[in-house]
Amino acid sequence: MPSPPQSRNPERSFKPLSTLAEIETAADSLPIEQKEELLRFLAMRLRKERTLPKPRIFSDEELTALIAEDQADGERFRQGR
């Protein structure tokens, strides 16, 4: 039985990419609009897969110290030091 004809449309025939280097090379050849689309796609996937660390809980003393340090840094900045 003869095999089906190969498509001559380059968008239809592709070789699966299996290494990061192959993916990077393929991404380099994309037009800017498709690179941006790829970036948005990857960012969405990362957001779904990444687990965020638990929020830190600060004591009142720690918060007071952090605020005082920030205010002192701001004052030094304003004074040009």
Can you describe what's shown?
The chain has about 80 residues and is an all-alpha fold. The chain has a domain at about 20-50. The chain has 3 helices and no strands. The protein has helices at about 20-30, 30-50, 60-80. The longest helix is centred in the C-terminal third of the chain and has 19 residues, at about 60-80. The radius of gyration is 26 Å and the shape is elongated. The mean pLDDT is about 85.
Question: What is the topological layout?
Answer:
Elements: H1 20-28, H2 32-49, H3 60-78
Task: Give structural attributes.
3 helices; 0% strand; mainly alpha; elongated; 81 residues
Quantity of strands, as a count: 0
Question: What value does the Rg take, in angstroms?
Answer: 26 Å
Instruction: Please mark out the parts with pLDDT under 50 across 5 or more consecutive residues, or reply none.
Output: none
Structural class: mainly alpha
**Approximate shape:** elongated
The percent range for strand residues is: under 5%
Number of helices: 3
Summarize the structure.
This protein is mainly alpha-helical and about 80 residues long. Helices cover about 55% and strands about 0% of the residues.
